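Sample entry copied in:
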Amino acid sequence: MAIAVLSSSQPRRGRGPGSSIPPSALALLVGVLLLQLGFIFSYVAAFHDPHPHNIPIAVVAPEPVAARVVTEINASAGHVGHAGVATGATAAQGQLKSGTISAALLVNVHGRTDRLLYAEAGGASVASAVQEIATRAEASQHRRVTFTDVVPLQPGDGRGLTGFYLVIGWVVGGYLMAAALGTVLGPHPASRRLAELRLATIVPYALLSGLFGVLIVEQLLHALSGHFLELWGLGTLVVAAAAAATMAVEALIGVAGIGVVVLAFVILGNPSAGGAYQTTMLPGFWRAISGWLPNGAGTDSVRRIVYFGSHGVTGHLLVLALYVVAGAGITLARSPAIRGGFRGR
C-alpha cells in the first residue's frame, strides 16, 4: 500500500506542459526540412542534365561561307550556339581574350580542315561544349576541325574552379559573420547608433577576409597568380555584400532571416554561380538569377579579372555594391531613431 501511495504521489514524467515540443521549435524543424529539400532540388535540378544555351561563337570566313555556317549553328536543335561573323582571325582572338565570345571557328576555304579557337579559362564545361558543337557541325559537311586553346587556365587552377570556391568562401564568411552578430547581440539593433556600429564592423572583417582569401589562393596554394590587389578588392566587396544583406534580412524578419539568406546564397546562389557548370550550361532559371546574386557576380568577376583583362566586371561590381548600400540602408531604416545610449536588447 505504501508503495502504491508513494507511486501515485510522484509526478508522471512526459505529461507536463514542458514535455512536448513547443510550436516555435516545431516550426524551426519544418523550416530546416524545407531548406534541406530545397538544397537537394536546386543542386540536382541545376546539374543533372547540363546543356549548352546560346554559347557565343564567332565565325571567320568569306562572306557567303560565313553566312551559311552562322545559319547552321544558330539553327541547331536546342539553340546551343549563338554565332556571328568576325572580321578576321585577329578580331576573333581579341573577342576571345576579352571574354566576349567562347569560341571562334576559322573556316579554311582551301581545304577541308578548319580550326576552332576557344578559351578554356572561360569554363571547362563550355570549352567541351563548343568543341562538340564544332565537331558535329563539321561532320555534317564532311569536314574536320582542330582545336586551339587561346586562353588556357593557369597551372594551379584545376578546371577553373579556384575562383568559384574562393567566392563561395567569401560569401559564407560574410553571412556567417552577420548571423553570428545577430545571434549574440540580437537581430534588431536597439538604437540607430548600435546599428551603425554593427554595420561598421563589416569593413575590417571584409578587408581581412578578402586579404587572407587571396593570400591563401595565391601565396599558399599557388592556385592563381597575379591580380592581387584587384582580387583583394573584389573579395572585400563580396564579403561586405553578403554581410550587409544578411543584417538587413535579420532586421526585417529576425532570426528567421538566416534561413532566407541560406536559401538565397547557398541553395540558389551556389549552383547558379557558374562554378562546376558555367551559366550557359544551366537551365533557364539558374541562368537568369546568376548575375544577380553575390555568388555568380563574384565568380564571374574572378574569372574575368584573372583571365580576361577585367572586361565585363563593371556590372557585377555594381550588383555587389547595391547589396552593400541596400543592406546598410534597410538595417538603418529598421533601427530605432535613437542615438547613443546602450539599451537592453
Q: What stands out?
A: The chain has 13 helices and five strands. The two ends are 55 Å apart (CA to CA).
